[in-house]
Amino acid sequence: RMVTERSVTDAQGVRRPDRVVWLPDGSVHVIDYKFGERHENRYRRQVSRYVDLLRRAGHDDVTGYLWYPIDGEIIEIR
Fold first, then answer.
1. Short-list 33, 60, 27, CA closest to 46
2. In sequence order, which residues have a C-beta less than 8 Å from that of residue 74 and are 6 or more positions away?
3. Burial zone of 1 (CB within 10 Å; 0-12 exposed, 13-18 middle, 19+ buried)
4. Longest dimension (CA), the chain
5. Dihedral sign, CA of 23, 27, 30, 31?
6. Gap between the terminal Cα atoms of the chain
7. Taking the complete model, does pTM exceed 0.90, yes or no?
8. Could you tell me the sign of the dihedral formed by the alpha carbons of 2, 72, 70, 32, in that order?
């Protein structure tokens, strides 16, 4: 199952990850695409918040990814 840009609300406000994918093994991948300037620390914190939000929602196996399509780079965030 997959959703794109679906708003999720928590105590800190509204979050909108680019893509969330639920895999058949029960794991969840949250993916955020970046096309502009690289603000590595800020983007890592952003994806980490998505991962934390999904864990608090009851998903145990969650991995986040920062994907820079133009550079062909994917950074895993747990």
1. 33
2. 65, 66, 67, 68
3. exposed
4. 35
5. negative
6. 20
7. no
8. positive
